[in-house]
Amino acid sequence: MRTPAGKECRYYYQDYFRGNDRQECRLIDRNPRGKRWKPSLCNTCPVPEILRNNACPNLALEATVDESFFGLKQAVKVYAVCTEKMCEVDKPSVGCGHCHAKV
Questions:
Q1: Mean pLDDT for back-to-back runs of 10 residues, the chain (103 residues)
Q2: Bridge partners (DSSP) listed for residue 65
Q3: Is 27 helix (H, G, I), strand (E, B) or coil?
Q4: Beta bridge partners of 88
């Protein structure tokens, strides 16, 4: 679905049908430890870029809202894991390097 920033993201959901007014990020809402999501976070969110660059089915993402500069600036922080090799992925846009043969 298209985010408020105009990017395609499978974790973003909106419902305006029959008077509903609902927007949510299902990736951030899945994390109970994180802060609340708001639509302005979609402008700088790295998740649509990661999903566009890396279509590996073994990539598992977790996202939180990270506050910096005394809580004035918020950004989305992404944590990625390869579910096949069970290792942390440092660059989610590229992948873990183990799942796909390098050409």
A1: 92 89 93 88 95 92 87 89 93 86 53
A2: 76
A3: helix
A4: 81
